[in-house]
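Dear support,

I submitted the protein below through the web form. The confirmation email said the job was done, but the results page showed an empty box. After a refresh the structure appeared. I'm attaching both so you can tell me whether what I see now is the final result or a partial one.
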Amino acid sequence: MTAKLKLSSVPDDKPVKLTVELPPDVHRDLLDYAAVMARETGHAAPEPAKLIAPMLQRFMATDRVFTKARKTLHQPSRPRAPSSETA
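What the results page shows now:
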């Protein structure tokens, strides 16, 4: 049985441009990931920068704490119940 990569393709969508700095070892890992992806799929290796967005998407989609917290992020805050203490 062959293990599957977390990414199987890189979607072609209109991006929002960001500029980021990566440590050299992370860039090397992206190059290696692209090479393994090319070998597994039989397609040309994607540009390393094209891997970042789907990797982040996958990471956030599988982060249970983030998913749970995000559900409450845009909900209006509830007013607090009046305190039973008297001044």
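Response: this is the final, complete result; the empty box was a page-load delay. The two ends are 71 Å apart (CA to CA).
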